[in-house]
Amino acid sequence: MDPSETQELVEIPPGIEKRHPVNSETQRRLNLVGVITEPFQWIQMLCKELNTSFVVGVMLVYGLSQGFSGSFFKVVSDYYWKDVQMVQPSAVQLYIGLYYIPWVMKPIWGILTDVFPVKGYRRRPYFIIAGVLGVVSALIVAIHGKLPIFLALVCLIGITAGVAIADVTIDACIARNSIEIPSLASDMQSLCGFCTSVGALIGYSTSGLFVHHLGPQGALGLLALPPALLVLLGFLIYELRTNQHSGKKKAAMEKVGGAIEGMYKTMKCSQVWKPSLYMYLSLALSISTNEGTFYWYTDPKAGPAFSQEFVGMIYAIGALASIAGVLIYHKILRNYQFRNLLFFVQLLYATSGMLDVIFILRWNLKLGIPDYFFVIMEECIARIVSRIRWMPMIVLSAKLCPLGIEGTFFALLMCIDSLGALSSKWSGGFILHVFHVTRTDFSNLWLVVLIRNVLRFSTLGLIFLIPRADQSDVLIPSALLSHGSSVNIEEERVELVFIKEKFDQT
Question: What sections of the protein cross the membrane (predicted)?
Answer without folding.
Answer: 54-73, 93-113, 125-143, 149-170, 191-212, 218-240, 277-298, 310-329, 341-363
